[in-house]
Amino acid sequence: MSTVLALTAPKDLLLVALALVCSGLTVALVRRRRAPGISPRRILFPFAGEGLSEPVLSAALRLARAEHATLVPAFLVRVPMAMPLTAPIPRQCGEALPLLEAVEQRAARAGIPVDTRIERGRTYRHALRELLEHERYDRLIVPAEDFGGADVAWLLEHAGGEVVVLRPARIPSVA
Amino acid sequence: MSHTVFLGMAAGVGKTYRMLQEGRAERLGGCDVVIGYLEPHDRPETAAQAEGLEVVPRRTVDHRGVRLEELDVEAVIARAPQLVLIDELAHTNAPGLAHAKRHEDVDDVLAAGIDVFSTVNVQHLESLNDMVADLTGVRVRETLPDAVLGRADEVVLVDLTPEALLDRLRAGKIYAAERVPAALNGFFKTEQLAALRELALRQVAEEVEAKRLVRAEELLRPRQDRLVATVAPQAVGERLLALVTPRPSSQRIVRRAWRSAQRLGAELDLLWVAPPGAEPPAELDALRRLASALGAHLLVEYGDRVADVVRRVAEERGSTYVLLGRPQHRRGLGRLREPLLLELLDALPGVDVRVIADRSHRSP
Lengths: 175, 364
Prior knowledge:
The complex is a heterodimer.
Chain A: H1 2-8, H2 10-34, E1 42-47, H3 54-66, E2 70-78, H4 90-109, E3 117-121, H5 124-134, E4 139-143, H6 149-158, E5 162-166
Parallel strand pairs in A: 1-2, 1-4, 2-3, 4-5
Chain B: E1 3-8, H1 15-28, E2 33-37, H2 44-50, E3 54-55, E4 59-63, E5 66-70, H3 73-79, E6 83-86, H4 102-111, E7 115-121, H5 129-136, H6 146-151, E8 154-158, H7 162-170, H8 180-185, H9 190-220, H10 226-231, E9 239-243, H11 249-264, E10 267-274, H12 283-294, E11 297-302, H13 306-317, E12 321-325, H14 340-347, E13 352-356
Parallel strand pairs in B: 1-7, 1-8, 2-3, 2-6, 6-7, 9-10, 9-12, 10-11, 12-13
Antiparallel strand pairs in B: 4-5
């Protein structure tokens, strides 16, 4: 009885209300902190050419999901020697953007954060080198069909993170 | 007061010479003309044109032990002529002066009611900087905001064929003999000069067309709608301004904005409005590289109120479209403020505002 009387006192009611507000704020802040965002772990996924094979993309997405990582698909572009390396490349961008958008949509449906890139170089390996210099990554997934044996050997020697070389079967491409 | 700019494709086409000629003609007509700043480049023909014209003494500035000479704005304003001739509009002033750039000095002179004749080369225009670097392999450091040319009352193109300019160079009329071989092997190549000439011709044609359109719009539009039309005279065609942040989600906005720009045959500017004092994050570099590959212009402006900054940039760049991602819900006291989208619609009359949807959340 005395407890009930004590709680009904205006001062105590105020304290209870304050406690409820504080707990609500704490829950909101925790939820906000846990909101899905960009994962600090990054999987670099460079590719070249006109299409991207479905099994390679699926494998890259599976790995990204399993590791709660951000997938960084990077379209590599060769810039002819006649052009400055930093010159705009609208034609190649016209090919790259729909492909990157397709990857982004697939990744979004799977709940995987994506951070796309276009990287230029005189050769694909040069573009790859530029990409590795500019980007932070924990793992590198390389489609074997886009890179030759020498490129893969170079990667194994120079890439800072883990390297996964994927060789898919002959299956129709994504785009 | 009025501002006339003599625009050329490269050094040596005769901008300064023509400016002096026009200045002399004005003086013969009874106008009080002085030279505010002249860069004769040791060219006797140019120096001869300057003879007889009063020269306002330059201001000297000591910078790290080097004595530099600059336009003395106060002296020009105190002299109060009717017309002042000021060379090299894109020039960067020595540190310690009131303004960082000479075109800002020119604004002061114009504000004092004095007419100005000035000169600039087309490669100094900010919007053409990347294109000129691609064409010539030379990155021009001293740039001039396009709006300065847009605000000029008259732009006079000083034209010369590339062959005639090369003849002048070989004859030693532009540089001293020892500098000619280097110039011929570097900047002064027929193909490069032809491309720069085309740029200069197009620039002046667009300025003329823009002014004609603005005048037409001024006659047609009610007064309240005039804001963007009068301050964005370079908007001959379409120009897109996409609002971005250095986050992965902005890549989608950039892609969609670029495709729209391609369809419209328009230039694309990307704008990040950063909080005052914010350090550029590492992610900005990725955005910068994407912009470079696409041929877009990445602008970073600092400000508290996004709509105000967007409005200013849209005016300066002559934007006809503004594109943005879906604005995030405001939290806390921010909810009391007007949503960004409505702020933009109010701030940018006459400009299309487009919200880019996230298609990844669309049903397959």
